[in-house]
């Protein structure tokens, strides 16, 4: 079986920072360390941190007073920050700086009197956090049809911001539809879709052009992994989103000798190794990698950790 790996793939700088935040907090402060929500959307990462002493909770009232709590890479609403202060919790904020940037933009637009539209998936933790960071009414939408159904008067001062992990192409179409209906609308184009998400989408498109089938390694909960699977599927070849090697089905590979592999931004490289090991049990592998950009982005750890180093 010929295997072609996408480049880049897997962990982004925001996920590396979030995972390191939990690991270093455990090292510096000792277990238990509480983490609000899955630190990143990957069960293997969560399980590995749990084994090291992290305790995952959904809400802060599950955290004892004075304990250390880490906010996940997706960001949190202001009300959660306030609750942590009221309960005297010690906080390390692992919100990805690119998500914080969207929060800031939203607040600035709101302060300047714009009515805000957030292009994003309703209910996604990042979207909930962003909504809760902006002290104004925000309309969430995801599709061109939803743009067509908007009922703002034509001269409403409008601005939009975007979730960081969307499909660049789909978002471009939504932005174009917004601009058609409301030419005065302001916003950041698709630049706020994060560099790592964009790079992985470009890479999976190139990969899909030269393989018979694509495997995306990642969680069903991971928005950017789902998008990678969808982009590969648009090329007309089968594409599967799998958590690890156990999810493989031998029949997928009948008459499909060339397999492309990529991974979402919250998937560790060890999960790709796991998938390769499972594939090697089906057929001998010839593994190559497509050329692609080497990402150099790094984010500083949260202030509370830097101070202790
Ligand atoms: Fe940050 Fe992008 Fe990674 Fe999300 S995918 S954590 S926005 S670097």
Automatic annotation (TrEMBL):
Xref: InterPro entries: LytB/IspH
Task: Provide one Gene Ontology biological process annotation.
Answer: isopentenyl diphosphate biosynthetic process, methylerythritol 4-phosphate pathway
Q: Which reaction does it catalyse?
A: isopentenyl diphosphate + 2 oxidized [2Fe-2S]-[ferredoxin] + H2O = (2E)-4-hydroxy-3-methylbut-2-enyl diphosphate + 2 reduced [2Fe-2S]-[ferredoxin] + 2 H(+); dimethylallyl diphosphate + 2 oxidized [2Fe-2S]-[ferredoxin] + H2O = (2E)-4-hydroxy-3-methylbut-2-enyl diphosphate + 2 reduced [2Fe-2S]-[ferredoxin] + 2 H(+)
Q: Which UniProt keywords apply?
A: 4Fe-4S, Iron, Iron-sulfur, Isoprene biosynthesis, Metal-binding, Oxidoreductase
Q: Which residues bind [4Fe-4S] cluster?
A: 12, 96, 194
Where do the annotations place isopentenyl diphosphate binding?
Answer: 41, 74, 124, 222, 224, 266
**So what EC number does this one have?**
1.17.7.4
Binding locations of dimethylallyl diphosphate:
41, 74, 124, 222, 224, 266
Positions contributing to (2E)-4-hydroxy-3-methylbut-2-enyl diphosphate binding: 41, 74, 124, 164, 222, 224, 266
Q: How is the cofactor bound?
A: Binds 1 [4Fe-4S] cluster per subunit.
Coiled coil where? none
Pathway per its UniProt entry is: Isoprenoid biosynthesis; isopentenyl diphosphate biosynthesis via DXP pathway; isopentenyl diphosphate from 1-deoxy-D-xylulose 5-phosphate: step 6/6; Isoprenoid biosynthesis; dimethylallyl diphosphate biosynthesis; dimethylallyl diphosphate from (2E)-4-hydroxy-3-methylbutenyl diphosphate: step 1/1
Q: Which cofactors does the annotated protein need, by name?
A: [4Fe-4S] cluster
The molecular function GO annotations come to: 4 iron, 4 sulfur cluster binding; 4-hydroxy-3-methylbut-2-enyl diphosphate reductase activity; metal ion binding
KW 4Fe-4S (keyword) present: yes
Catalytic site residues? 126
User: Member of which family?
Assistant: Belongs to the IspH family.
State what this protein does. Answer: Catalyzes the conversion of 1-hydroxy-2-methyl-2-(E)-butenyl 4-diphosphate (HMBPP) into a mixture of isopentenyl diphosphate (IPP) and dimethylallyl diphosphate (DMAPP). Acts in the terminal step of the DOXP/MEP pathway for isoprenoid precursor biosynthesis.
Q: What is this protein called?
A: 4-hydroxy-3-methylbut-2-enyl diphosphate reductase
| Higher taxonomy | Bacteria, Pseudomonadati, Pseudomonadota, Gammaproteobacteria, Pseudomonadales
